[in-house]
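Let's inspect one such protein example.
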Amino acid sequence: MASIQDVMPANYGYVVLAVAGGSLLNIYHIKCVASARKQSGVKAPAISSPEHPTFNNIMRAHANYLENYPFWAATTIFGGLQYPRVAAGAGLVFLIGRYIYAKDYAQDPAKRGRGFMISSLAQLVALGTTVGFGMNLLGCSRDCLTFWRK
Protein backbone atom coordinates (compact mmCIF):
# COMPACT_ATOMS: atom_id res chain seq x y z
CA MET A 1 0.00 0.00 0.00
CA ALA A 2 1.29 3.46 -0.91
CA SER A 3 2.02 5.95 1.82
CA ILE A 4 0.76 9.52 1.72
CA GLN A 5 4.29 10.66 0.82
CA ASP A 6 4.12 8.46 -2.29
CA VAL A 7 1.02 10.17 -3.67
CA MET A 8 1.53 13.79 -2.63
CA PRO A 9 4.02 16.10 -4.33
CA ALA A 10 7.43 16.52 -2.74
CA ASN A 11 7.45 19.52 -0.38
CA TYR A 12 3.63 19.58 -0.10
CA GLY A 13 4.08 19.46 3.67
CA TYR A 14 5.07 23.13 3.47
CA VAL A 15 1.68 23.91 1.94
CA VAL A 16 -0.07 22.03 4.74
CA LEU A 17 1.93 23.98 7.32
CA ALA A 18 1.14 27.30 5.62
CA VAL A 19 -2.59 26.55 5.72
CA ALA A 20 -2.25 25.46 9.36
CA GLY A 21 -0.57 28.82 9.95
CA GLY A 22 -3.74 30.42 8.62
CA SER A 23 -5.71 28.68 11.36
CA LEU A 24 -3.21 29.88 13.95
CA LEU A 25 -3.57 33.44 12.69
CA ASN A 26 -7.34 33.10 13.02
CA ILE A 27 -6.86 32.02 16.65
CA TYR A 28 -4.75 35.16 17.13
CA HIS A 29 -7.63 37.25 15.74
CA ILE A 30 -10.12 35.50 18.04
CA LYS A 31 -7.87 36.28 21.02
CA CYS A 32 -7.62 39.94 19.97
CA VAL A 33 -11.39 40.28 19.61
CA ALA A 34 -12.01 38.56 22.97
CA SER A 35 -9.50 40.86 24.67
CA ALA A 36 -11.02 43.95 23.03
CA ARG A 37 -14.48 42.84 24.13
CA LYS A 38 -13.27 42.50 27.70
CA GLN A 39 -11.49 45.87 27.71
CA SER A 40 -14.38 47.74 26.09
CA GLY A 41 -17.28 45.90 27.70
CA VAL A 42 -18.87 45.13 24.33
CA LYS A 43 -20.87 41.96 24.87
CA ALA A 44 -21.47 39.29 22.23
CA PRO A 45 -23.24 39.08 19.86
CA ALA A 46 -22.61 42.79 19.16
CA ILE A 47 -20.08 43.23 16.38
CA SER A 48 -19.57 46.98 16.72
CA SER A 49 -19.96 49.83 19.17
CA PRO A 50 -20.03 53.55 18.36
CA GLU A 51 -18.39 54.27 21.72
CA HIS A 52 -15.45 51.87 21.18
CA PRO A 53 -13.66 52.52 17.88
CA THR A 54 -10.65 50.35 18.81
CA PHE A 55 -12.95 47.37 19.34
CA ASN A 56 -14.55 48.11 15.96
CA ASN A 57 -11.14 48.20 14.28
CA ILE A 58 -10.06 44.88 15.79
CA MET A 59 -13.37 43.25 14.92
CA ARG A 60 -13.21 44.56 11.36
CA ALA A 61 -9.63 43.30 10.90
CA HIS A 62 -10.82 39.84 11.99
CA ALA A 63 -13.84 39.99 9.68
CA ASN A 64 -11.62 41.04 6.78
CA TYR A 65 -9.31 38.10 7.48
CA LEU A 66 -12.28 35.74 7.41
CA GLU A 67 -13.39 37.28 4.09
CA ASN A 68 -9.97 36.60 2.53
CA TYR A 69 -9.07 33.28 4.15
CA PRO A 70 -11.20 30.91 1.98
CA PHE A 71 -9.86 32.36 -1.29
CA TRP A 72 -6.29 32.22 -0.02
CA ALA A 73 -6.57 28.72 1.45
CA ALA A 74 -8.19 27.25 -1.67
CA THR A 75 -5.67 28.75 -4.07
CA THR A 76 -2.77 27.74 -1.81
CA ILE A 77 -4.01 24.15 -1.49
CA PHE A 78 -4.71 23.68 -5.21
CA GLY A 79 -1.74 25.61 -6.56
CA GLY A 80 0.50 23.84 -4.08
CA LEU A 81 -0.23 20.52 -5.78
CA GLN A 82 1.98 21.61 -8.66
CA TYR A 83 4.02 24.44 -7.15
CA PRO A 84 4.34 23.55 -3.45
CA ARG A 85 7.30 25.75 -2.56
CA VAL A 86 5.92 28.79 -4.39
CA ALA A 87 2.45 28.33 -2.87
CA ALA A 88 3.85 27.79 0.62
CA GLY A 89 6.19 30.77 0.30
CA ALA A 90 3.31 32.95 -0.88
CA GLY A 91 1.32 31.56 2.04
CA LEU A 92 3.96 32.69 4.51
CA VAL A 93 4.01 36.16 2.94
CA PHE A 94 0.19 36.26 3.05
CA LEU A 95 0.19 35.42 6.76
CA ILE A 96 2.82 38.05 7.53
CA GLY A 97 0.82 40.60 5.54
CA ARG A 98 -2.41 39.73 7.35
CA TYR A 99 -0.67 39.99 10.73
CA ILE A 100 0.66 43.44 9.81
CA TYR A 101 -2.79 44.39 8.53
CA ALA A 102 -4.40 43.40 11.84
CA LYS A 103 -1.83 45.26 13.96
CA ASP A 104 -1.99 48.40 11.83
CA TYR A 105 -5.79 48.37 11.53
CA ALA A 106 -6.17 48.08 15.32
CA GLN A 107 -4.15 51.28 15.73
CA ASP A 108 -5.64 53.25 12.83
CA PRO A 109 -7.69 51.94 9.88
CA ALA A 110 -5.91 54.39 7.58
CA LYS A 111 -2.64 52.50 8.22
CA ARG A 112 -3.90 49.12 6.98
CA GLY A 113 -2.57 49.61 3.45
CA ARG A 114 0.87 48.12 4.04
CA GLY A 115 -0.46 44.75 5.26
CA PHE A 116 -3.17 44.80 2.60
CA MET A 117 -0.64 45.20 -0.21
CA ILE A 118 1.67 42.49 1.13
CA SER A 119 -1.14 39.96 1.56
CA SER A 120 -2.82 40.88 -1.75
CA LEU A 121 0.37 40.31 -3.73
CA ALA A 122 0.76 36.94 -2.03
CA GLN A 123 -2.85 36.07 -2.90
CA LEU A 124 -2.16 36.88 -6.55
CA VAL A 125 0.85 34.54 -6.52
CA ALA A 126 -1.30 31.79 -5.00
CA LEU A 127 -3.94 32.42 -7.67
CA GLY A 128 -1.26 32.18 -10.33
CA THR A 129 -0.14 28.78 -9.04
CA THR A 130 -3.75 27.58 -9.15
CA VAL A 131 -4.26 28.81 -12.71
CA GLY A 132 -1.01 27.10 -13.73
CA PHE A 133 -2.11 23.87 -12.08
CA GLY A 134 -5.51 24.02 -13.77
CA MET A 135 -3.93 24.61 -17.17
CA ASN A 136 -1.61 21.68 -16.58
CA LEU A 137 -4.57 19.42 -15.71
CA LEU A 138 -6.19 20.44 -19.00
CA GLY A 139 -3.01 19.59 -20.89
CA CYS A 140 -2.26 23.20 -21.75
CA SER A 141 1.18 24.54 -22.25
CA ARG A 142 2.30 28.04 -23.01
CA ASP A 143 1.01 27.41 -26.55
CA CYS A 144 -2.55 27.27 -25.17
CA LEU A 145 -2.24 30.96 -24.39
CA THR A 146 -2.34 31.75 -28.13
CA PHE A 147 -6.10 31.12 -27.90
CA TRP A 148 -6.41 34.35 -25.89
CA ARG A 149 -4.40 36.38 -28.39
CA LYS A 150 -6.80 35.79 -31.29
Summary: The mean pLDDT is 93. The two ends are 48 Å apart (CA to CA). The CA atoms of residues 16 and 75 lie 12 Å apart.
